[in-house]
Amino acid sequence: MSEKKQPGVWEGFKAFLMRGNVIDLAVAVVIGAAFTNIVNSVVKGIINPLVGAIGTQNLDSYSSCLKPPCTGTGDTATGIRIMWGSVLGATLSFVITAAVVYFLMVLPMSKFLARQAARQKAKEGAQEVIEVSELEVLKEIRDALVAQRGSGNSHN
Predict the structure, then answer these.
(1) DSSP secondary structure string for all residues of 22-86
(2) β-strands 80-82, 64-67 pairing
(3) pLDDT tens digits for 88-130?
(4) In 3D, which of 70, 43, 73, 37 has the Cα closest to residue 57?
(5) Per the confidence metrics, is the pTM higher than 0.70?
């Protein structure tokens, strides 16, 4: 009896790495990390100063005191503070990231794919019209041959 050899761990790992999804995911992570720096720069360089026109440029300094006295910063802080400014900054970063990804990547790609689908559909529609007209011509030829045979038999 021949026994099938099970693939080893190394072969399975190589097969896993050679899948296209793993490479695509790795590229996405690297691009995402680089993109994060751009978004953080936009938030720190543009959004925070705009918010700073109303209050302070550093959103992290916005907080509310839940249990007084709230004095000091870092390890010397007393009381209980809710640091809602850092949450606001992270939310703005997320919204900006989502907007940039949507408007610069998702929307153009979906429009491109829609145009491609429309072209493909138009090409298929034209092909169908050609096939239908060929079918009609073939039917006419068949009918003419049948009529010709029928009239040829009656004259004999």
Answers:
(1) HHHHHHHHHHHHHHHHHHHHHIIIIIHHHHHTTS-S-GGG--EEEES-----GGG--SEEE-HHH
(2) antiparallel
(3) 878 877 887 788 778 877 888 889 989 998 888 888 777 777 7
(4) 43
(5) no
At residue 66, what are phi and psi to the nearest 5 degrees? Answer: -85, -40
Dihedral of CA 61/62/67/70: which sign?
positive
pLDDT digits (tens, 9 = 90+) for 15-44: 777 776 777 788 888 888 888 888 778 777
Angle at 52 between CA 51 and CA 58, to 5 degrees: 100
The three-point CA angle 102-95-35 to 5° equals 65
Other CB atoms within 10 A of residue 43 CB? 20
Sign of CA dihedral 81, 85, 87, 90: negative
Please report where in the chains the tokens 């959103």 appear, as a residue: 59
Q: Which tokens hold the place of 113?
A: 């794919």
